[in-house]
Amino acid sequence: MNNTAPEPSGARGYHAELWGVTKPVVGMVHLLPLPGSPGWGGSMADVLDRAVWEARILAGEGLDGVLVENYGDVPFFPGAVPPETVAAMAVVVREVAGEVRVPVGVNVLRNDARAALAVAAAGGARFVRVNVHAGSMFTDQGLLEGRAYETLRLRRSLGAPVAILADVLVKHATPPPGTTLEGAARDAWHRGLADGLILTGAETGAPVDAGEMGRVKAALPEEGRVWVGSGVTAESAPALLEAADGLIVGSALQAGGRAGGGVRAERVRALVRALERSV
């Protein structure tokens, strides 16, 4: 997008070096089912062709980054994914990163941060998303526990310049009793050393509560980066980007506004036009 003021010098970790804008807008590439998953269609060529085509649309229409995710692999593994998933994602991410001139990210669902970092290092991606980086959440995969201690050490050992964007009380999940939004955010930032935090609604495509954004921003130091990671639409994007430090947009850019439906150029254009008019 065209918010091209320089990044504040106090920005955390890799964030300052990664984006060419102060408030990035990233589009999702929801992969077709990969080898080994129940929905696998038998053709990696089909997976690659669609992923590259969608990434070209997102970058070509003016978004600032692309996030590749194995969305079609339902039901998801709670933690470590099998080697065939890692291999397939590395191939896809390498192809996508070679086709677009914007930062490419990786999310390995449901919560395999080690695999995401490995794919990023091998495939040339610049950031990863981790659904549960610190603390724990009850999900449809069972209890997910953050492994920031492993993730940060692996990043260091790989020497990978990869930013970590961590969800706070991620969608499709319930926090343990006594957990507060502000406390979870502070832990992910100060103790988990995330480079940016992500807020979502209750489920895929659900909007973020504006009050929650304010509470998290108030709980973090000035350099804290807070993204909106679900429910962004062309109509809501300008106000959300005013309040947040970045947007991740999936469902609204895809056919019928449905996650996994396939990116549509006209929907990406509508988002970009809405944000340009708000500047």
Shape: globular
CATH class: Alpha Beta
Strand order of the largest sheet: 1-2-3-4-7-9-10-11
Spatial extent as radius of gyration: 17 Å
**Termini separation:** 10 Å
**What structural class results from the helix and strand content?**
alpha/beta
Largest sheet: 8 strands, parallel, barrel
CATH homolog superfamily:
Aldolase class I
Unreliable stretches (pLDDT < 50, length at least 5) are 4-11
The secondary-structure element order is: HEHEHEHEEEHEEHEHEHEH
Work out the helicity level. Answer: 25-40%
How many domains comprise the coordinates? 1
Strand content: 15-25%
CATH-defined fold name? TIM Barrel
Would you count the extended β strands for me? 11
Q: Can you lay out the helices and strands and say which pair or pack?
A:
Blueprint: H1 15-18, E1 25-30, H2 44-60, E2 65-69, H3 83-99, E3 104-107, H4 113-123, E4 127-130, E5 136-139, E6 142-145, H5 148-158, E7 163-167, E8 173-174, H6 181-191, E9 196-199, H7 210-219, E10 226-228, H8 237-243, E11 246-249, H9 265-278
Parallel strand pairs: 1-2, 1-11, 2-3, 3-4, 4-7, 7-9, 9-10, 10-11
Antiparallel strand pairs: 5-6, 5-8
Helix pairs in contact: 2-3, 3-4, 4-5, 6-7
Give a description of the structure:
The protein is α/β, with parallel strands linked by helices and 279 residues long. The chain has one domain: Alpha-Beta Barrel (TIM Barrel), CATH 3.20.20.70. It has helices at 15-18, 44-60, 83-99, 113-123, 148-158, 181-191, 210-219, 237-243, 265-278; strands at residues 25-30, 65-69, 104-107, 127-130, 136-139, 142-145, 163-167, 173-174, 196-199, 226-228, 246-249. It has an 8-stranded parallel β-barrel, surrounded by 6 helices. A 3-stranded antiparallel β-sheet has the order 6-5-8, with no helix packed on it. Strand 10 (226-228), helix 8 and strand 11 (246-249) form a beta-alpha-beta unit. The radius of gyration is 17 Å and the shape is globular.
